Amino acid sequence: MKIIDTHCDALLKLQHAKRGQYFYDQKPLHFSNAKELDTNLERLKHGNVKAQFFAIFIHPDVPSEEKWQHALEQVDLFYTEVLEKHPEMRHIRSWSDLDTLRDGEIGAVLTLEGADAFGNDLMKLRQLYRLGVLSIGITWNNANLCADGVEEPRGGGLTLLGKEVVKLNNEYGVFTDVAHATVKGFWDIMELAEYPIASHSNARAVCDHPRNLYDDQIKCMIAKGGLIHIVYNPPFINYECEEATIPDLIKHIDHFCSLGAVNHIGFGSDFDGISSFVDHLENAANYQNLINELLKYYSEAEVKGFAYQNFLEHRPGM
């Protein structure tokens, strides 16, 4: 069964390796088959991933004056290492491109995790749209000029700048991602966003982690036609635990479905951004293990929904 995965951090790994070549004589990573990449091309093919989202992520420790350069480096690696060297990887520049993928092609979607990259410069944000970014997460865990992230103690919501970003996302047909938003930020986003997504989040009622969604948030996402994509990071599955099984992960899907989200669920692995893994779901090559387990509990139509169809039906413009 084909898969759409809405979050991975392969670009950050590729950037670290590229910089390591210059400063530490490290070997390069090849997107085709580097074992260090959970989402390398070989593994994407084996797992029957039909579309993979690649996040631009800038760590908060990067000095402010260097963040834009770091973002552009990751965009450049997306173009040079992922797309140009691998004709099977097709850049998804508009949501309708997903409908024209040919057999053997894998869609590559560029996203942004955290507004730190553009600071308060909306010209830079518009440039990211032009480069093909189709989903914007306003925050990561830290605070920035647009909003607080989940680890910021004050727990603030959107700033005036952050509200302008959400409005621009609407204008450009781009998702606004609530994955790392505070509770206040979530509700601020939901007041404005036409295209909300939680690209990699689980259910807080099952695992009480601040990165997960409360039931009222889940119900609001459903009401607004948003998407909730489950994440494979064990501490977000079993609180403060570095171990998880596929049945543990399915408990979150069960809970989402109990609230009426069966047509809003998808997958957002966080591969290449996590350091521990679900048993038998350690990288993109193992995706069909999750599908096979889900088919024990859900109909084929429902599992196809989780795997790709729900996303296709709820993407902007549909």
UniProtKB/TrEMBL annotation:
<dbReference type="InterPro" id="IPR008257">
    <property type="entry name" value="Pept_M19"/>
</dbReference>
<dbReference type="Pfam" id="PF01244">
    <property type="entry name" value="Peptidase_M19"/>
</dbReference>
<dbReference type="InterPro" id="IPR032466">
    <property type="entry name" value="Metal_Hydrolase"/>
</dbReference>
<protein>
    <submittedName>
        <fullName>Dipeptidase</fullName>
    </submittedName>
</protein>
